[in-house]
Amino acid sequence: MATSVLLKLLAMGLIVALGWGAARLRWLGPGDVARTLSNAAFYLFVPALLFRTASRMDFSAMPWSALAVFFVPTWAMMLAVVVWNQRRVAHASPAAPGVRAMTACFGNSVQLGIPVAAAVLGEAGLAIHLTIVSLHALTLLTLMTAQVELALARDRARQGLADGHLGRLLRDTARATVIHPVVLPIIAGLLVNASGIGVPSLIDELLVQLGQAVVPLCLVLLGVSLNQYGFVFTGRGMAALVMVKLMVMPAVVLVVGHWVFGLEALPLTVVVMAAALPSGSNPLLFAQRYQVLEAETTSAITVSTLVFVLTAPFWLAVVAWVVGA
Q1: CA dist 117 to 13, 134, 240, Å?
Q2: pLDDT tens digit string along 59-91?
Q3: Domains held by the chain: number
Q4: Who's near 260: CB < 8 A, 6+ residues apart?
Q5: Cα separation of 280 and 273, whole Å?
Q6: φ, ψ for residue 262 (rounded to 5)?
Q7: Among 114, 115, 119, 141, which Cα is nearest to 130's?
Q8: What is the CATH number of the domain that holds 170?
Q9: Count H helices, E strands: the chain?
């Protein structure tokens, strides 16, 4: 890969190491520091970023075929991971399958994806990648929030803690999904976007400042979580999540993109490389939010990011071979 991408990976690793060291030396204070940072990200910084992104999207300029090639297989893969975990794996929490689906399918499209696209694919490739970024968190977080909230509602109904009637179950799930620190700012941003009234300059600057903190905060959180939960290799479970993210997802997107939608050259390379990105930090926020699989998620993010150095050149070569064949 290009030197700039390797430098980006190294810088990210150093920030994670700083978070680990700060937690190790107790610079961040006693108690559950990881959850405190996660709450700050989930309730303050991420909502600001999502609201601003949703309010500024230009739907008329979207490359819809490339977006369909990326998102339809990604959505299908997430639901497949959820169903597999629900049927084959015993979990302490009904939220666990959704957290695993996020880990296996939610890529690091900003911190790593943007520099990869800029360094390897150029300005035209970056433009396509940015359209994926604009919908990435909005759609995937919303989909999995709805899935997890429905699973939790069903579990409460089974325990007799809530009304099990289907209509009320769906109503409660919809309420919990919408009134959520991730989904609510997305809906609000889309409403502002549709209204055409725009965001006042002062508010927009506030959102910019809050949004800029998301990347470093999440990387520090990853380091803190590594210290707090330790590096846990859970055997086939964690390895499967990494394999799905780095190998299965880009393979499925490549097949759908080239042989179903007929994408060629640059658009195909962009969507495959977006699918091949390692797990992002949002799955850890998700795990923290629902207090399940924090150690496994942290470890899977770390491993997939390290292995990406090897798998990224592989997928670039594969796409070049497919396009040239």
Answers
A1: 19, 14, 26
A2: 777 788 999 999 999 999 999 999 998 887 777
A3: 1
A4: 69
A5: 14
A6: 75, 25
A7: 114
A8: 1.20.1530.20
A9: 16, 0
